[in-house]
Amino acid sequence: WYRKIKKDATYCIGLDPSMGTGGDYAAIQVFELPTYKQVGEWRHNTTPIPGQIRILKDICDFIEKETGSSNSIYWSVENNAIGEAALLVIQDFGEENIPGLFVSEPIRKGHVRKFRKGFNTTHKTKISACSRLKNMIEKGKLKIYSKPLISELKAFVASGSSYKAKSGEHDDLVSAMLLAMRIIAVLKDWDP
Q: Can you tell me the distance from the alpha carbon of 27 to that of 63, in angstroms, rounded to the nearest whole number?
């Protein structure tokens, strides 16, 4: 935790899941709105997916306890590949047992794919989130307190027409932050 939880703020929590087998990290970012301040993060590479969902729940429980309400908590997960397993764990665990609202990307007109909760990261959505993140950092609107996240941002570079970590580096904290940016964009559509 980097900052104290405030009763009058809104909290956005993004989980980028991983297999939990020692390779890629699972990461969670917690941001406060409307200040856009990072208030917490978690990263680990050997926690299995059910453990990652329990940690997400613990974070939501803590924020609910501190604020006295679950109405200001918005959370989500990336639902690509490994994220599908996270969705199954959430379903087994019971979405209603995690305080706050599980945010999903809106269904786009003309899409025939079955709706899945969470956020699916495609080339287009990643570029859009990266652009939003870059803009907010450059304008000084986003306050980051995490040294590991800052290190990852420094190693997060353009690669062809997308972005990724330099060879040998990780970008899991950045991915969780990009997910938080996408949650914030959905929330803005609900309540500018």
A: 18
Report the SS3 class of residue 38: strand
Q: Give the model confidence (pLDDT) of 141-181 as tens digits.
A: 999 999 999 999 999 888 887 788 888 888 999 999 999 99
Question: Given 3-state DSSP classes, what are the helix, strand and coil percentages for the chain, each rounded to the nearest 5?
Answer: 40, 20, 40
Query: How many Cβ atoms are within 10 Å of 8's Cβ, its own excluded?
Result: 6
Maximum separation of any 2 CA atoms in the chain, in Å: 46
pTM: 0.91
Give the helix ranges, DSSP H, for the chain.
Answer: 49-67, 82-93, 123-138, 147-154, 172-190
Phi, psi of 185 (to 5 degrees): -65, -40
